[in-house]
Amino acid sequence: MIDLRSDTATKPTSEMRAAMAAAEVGDEQQREDPTVNELQRRAAELLGQEAALFLPTATMANQIALKILTRPGCLLIAEERTHVLIYEAGGPAVHSGLVMRGLPGVAGRLAPEQLREIAKTSEDLEPASVVVLENTHRSAGGRVWPVDEFARVVATARDLGLAVHLDGARLLNASVAASVPPAEYGRLADTVTVCFSKGLGCPLGAVLAGSAERIEAAWQGKFLFGGAMRQAGIVAAAALYALDHHVERLAEDHRRARRLAEGLAAAGLPVDPNTVETNFVGVDVGSMGIDAAEARERIASEGVLVGALRPGVLRVATYLGISDEDVGRAVEAIPRALGVQSPIRTAAPRAR
Ligand SMILES: Cc1ncc(COP(=O)(O)O)c(C=O)c1O
Predict the structure, then answer these.
(1) What is the average pLDDT across 247-255?
(2) Cys staple from 64: which of 6, 53, 173, 221, with CB 3.0 to 4.6 Å?
(3) Are residues 290 and 237 both part of a single domain?
(4) The model's pTM
(5) Is 349 contained in some domain?
(6) Would you say 185 and 171 are in contact if contact means Cβ atoms under 8 Å apart?
């Protein structure tokens, strides 16, 4: 089975496992784990911020960020399919008492005017309200914010007195795709999440970066949310290994996703290769009149697992662990399962 559901299916390589086995460890919640401390130092530098905090998941990093940036009753403004709005179990409302306002975006991106419009029409725009920007944007198909456009929206948010959290769970994909250092995006936001368990080979782990003062406050959140760990260096070692060895190779995942998109589009599937900027390909099976769950089952019966990008649209993801050969097989199997013939297929169609 070729698993293209999500880049979270990434697994540690033997070299990463060796680095984990050799890690020096200590009590992380006492700030005594040297490997965690080193990862936090590296992550802060990478993201153009003063400090960073190691956490088990990106969801926890996002939720702690929202908690420290806001007060109950404030607004959280984000593009309507942003992860914090739809995949974090209502956390911003539950944990931080935020009122969530989702706005339609283009490729997952908000425009400055949309923030100004909210400011005009919201009597409840408290000073400690927050805008969450996601880069890459998961549900838009791993789309990348051009850094200038990102800077313009952040500047507008600042004008309006809003805090800015960057959910950069896949910021390293964005950075590689745009050839922009992660710090160029990271330094503009108040807080930044980066996740290591997406396409980078790590079993788990994320960081939250921000000013020294904010990260000190985030330590409180780490205890409050139950994310203060003990000998966590064994996992932080995987993240350090990934930063050294698995970031530049993300370009290979992007190239493979592009090849997948071109192959699927050439086979006649509703896929737009021009929208494939990183490691996700969207297949709009809804437009073919095929139910997404049924499409996934049919594709699975051909030996390929695919996921869901948004309603009616499948996600086909590449990551560390997916080879050119896997892509070649998927380009044949997916059209066959959906009843269209891949033109690059040379053998006679199999009886079904
Ligand atoms: C954009 C984005 N943010 C946050 C998360 C949450 O990550 P985690 O599973 O580590 O909590 C995800 C997970 O897929 C994501 O896609």
Answers:
(1) 98
(2) 221
(3) no
(4) 0.95
(5) no
(6) yes
Q: Is 138 in the pocket of ligand 1 (CB under 6 A)?
A: yes
pLDDT digit string (tens) for 148-159?
999 999 999 999
Q: Are residues 230 and 92 in the same domain?
A: yes
Residue 234: count other Cβ atoms within 10 Å of its Cβ. 20
Q: From ligand 1's centre to the CA of 82, what distance in Å?
A: 10
User: From the CA of 137, how far away is ligand 1's center (Å)?
Assistant: 11
Q: How far is residue 243's CA from residue 46's CA, in Å, rounded to a whole number?
A: 10
Q: Would you say residue 44 lies in a domain? A: yes
308 alpha carbon to ligand 1 midpoint, in Å? 14
Terminus-to-terminus CA distance in the chain, angstroms?
Answer: 18
Q: Which atom of ligand 1 is nearest to the CA of 136?
A: 1
Q: Note the pLDDT of residue 351.
A: 39
Q: What is the CATH number of the domain that holds 329?
A: 3.90.1150.10
Where among 195, 212, 245 does a domain terminate?
A: 245
The residue to mutate among 135, 138, 193, having the most atoms of ligand 1 within 8 angstroms of its beta carbon, is 138
Q: Is 347 a residue whose pLDDT tops 80? A: no
Average pLDDT, the chain: 95
Q: What does the pLDDT read at residue 342?
A: 53
Among 198, 226, 245, where does a domain finish? Answer: 245
Q: Are residues 59 and 92 in the same domain?
A: yes
Backbone angles phi, psi at 143, to 5 degrees: -75, 150
- pLDDT tens figures, 87-117: 999 999 999 999 999 999 999 999 999 999 9
Number of separate domains in the chain = 2
User: Ligand 1, residues 6, 54, 198: which to mutate, most atoms within 8 A of Cβ?
Assistant: 198
Q: Which domain holds residue 226?
A: 12-245
Per-residue pLDDT at 268 exceeds 70:
yes
pLDDT in the model for residue 79: 98
CATH assignment at residue 211: 3.40.640.10
Share of the chain above pLDDT 70, in %: 95
Q: Of all atoms in ligand 1, which is nearest to the CA of residue 60?
A: 11
Give me the helix-helix angle, 250-266 and 171-178, nearest 10°: 80
Give alpha helix (H) positions in the chain. 14-21, 34-46, 58-69, 83-86, 91-96, 112-121, 147-159, 171-178, 182-186, 212-224, 233-245, 250-266, 292-300, 324-337
